[in-house]
Amino acid sequence: MYKYYNPKSYNLEALSEGYFYLSAPEDFNDPFDSRTLIYYQGTIDEWTKLFMTKGLSKADASMRARSIGNRIIYPDPEKKREFERLNHAIVCFASSELNPLMWSHYADSHKGFCIKFRTFEGIQHEGLETRRINIIKDQLLFKEEYKDLFLIMKVKYSHQMPEEFNGFSDDLTGLNAFFITKSKEWEYEQEFRAIFKIDNIKNESRKIFYEKDSVESIYLGNKISLQDREKITRILKDHYIDKGFRPSVYQCELSKKSYSLEIRPT
Q1: Are residues 182 and 110 in the same domain?
Q2: What is the pLDDT of residues 50-77, one digit of tens each?
Q3: Which structural domain, as residue segments, surrounds residue 59?
Q4: Which Pfam families would you find in this protein's record (predicted)?
Q5: d(Cα 48, Cα 36) in Å, to the nearest integer?
Q6: Do 129 and 70 lie in a common domain?
Q7: Does 110 score more than 90 pLDDT?
């Protein structure tokens, strides 16, 4: 899996310290991204438990639940946005290091860099199939402390949004669909996503640290400045090579025969 970066100082810091920043769906560049369609239709017991989490006594919660009965309730737009904002955070990955559009859109028009991470074996990504990642020595990416806190899934591209999701459902496949479905116009990204529940993250800075031996390669953009190249070279020496990690480094170049990118070792 690959991740593209512009050469801003905060991304160079992320490379040196070995972390990803968790993104909130509301900050994405696609206004449809992760927009949920949620309704609530539940039993009296389910409604009662929900209202009790909001501070009502059991008697008041039960009375209110009975007044709703079997009706379908849609949350107001502000509460829905709050749900989207507070409940999930995402780390995005790409499937290739040679995608010119990804370099243009996410690496400052080829002035940035791209990291290749060693991939997990057996990731399920057809349709809405998912697999919870078990972190073992040969497949390290995120630090051990994040074990079982996330899912990695391949994004699905469609002209249609996922079906509405019942907020009382225990099957989260329908909810996850909103976080891994994007419009067909974004298909060029060929994206993977690591999806975290915010409740599971105790780090308020939203930094998720990875094992540095999971960094397999670094790719430098075709238009990277000499100054940024030197900064990355220094980071790799001080924070990787001198500590026993040996990521390969490649320079991206324009093909002389086609509208594509090529790489050469540095």
Answers
A1: yes
A2: 889 888 999 998 998 888 888 888 776 6
A3: 44-74
A4: DUF2971
A5: 24
A6: no
A7: yes
Look up residue 248 and give its two tokens. 């390969």
Euclidean distance between CA atoms 228 and 44, whole angstroms: 60
User: Measured between alpha carbons, how far is 143 from 153 in angstroms, rounded to an integer?
Assistant: 18
SS3 of residue 72 by DSSP: coil
* Highest-scoring range by mean pLDDT, 31-40, 88-97, 116-125, 203-212: 88-97
Cα dihedral sign, 128-129-135-138:
negative
Are residue 96 and residue 164 in the same domain, yes or no?
yes
Q: Do residue 64 and residue 103 come from a single domain?
A: no
Instruction: Answer yes or no: do 110 and 223 share one domain.
Output: yes
Nearest Cα residue to 195 out of 89, 81, 82 = 89
* 11 and 55 part of one domain: no
Q: What is the pLDDT of residues 12-32, one digit of tens each?
A: 999 999 999 888 887 888 988
| Residue ranges in 74-188 assigned as alpha helix (H) | 77-87, 100-106, 173-179
Dihedral angle computed from the Cα positions of residues 162, 164, 167 and 173, in that order, rounded to the nearest 10 degrees:
-30
CA distance 49 to 59: 11
Angstrom distance (rounded) from CA 123 to CA 57: 45
Judge if 35 and 48 occupy the same domain. no
Six-digit token pair at 126? 């057809």
Last residue of a domain, one of 52, 74, 96: 74
Count of structural domains within the chain: 2
pLDDT digits (tens, 9 = 90+) for 162-185: 888 887 887 777 778 888 899 999
Alpha helices in 92-225 (DSSP H): 100-106, 173-179
The radius of gyration of the chain's CA atoms, rounded to the nearest angstrom, is 22
Q: At what angle do helices 58-68 and 44-53 cross, to 10 degrees?
A: 130
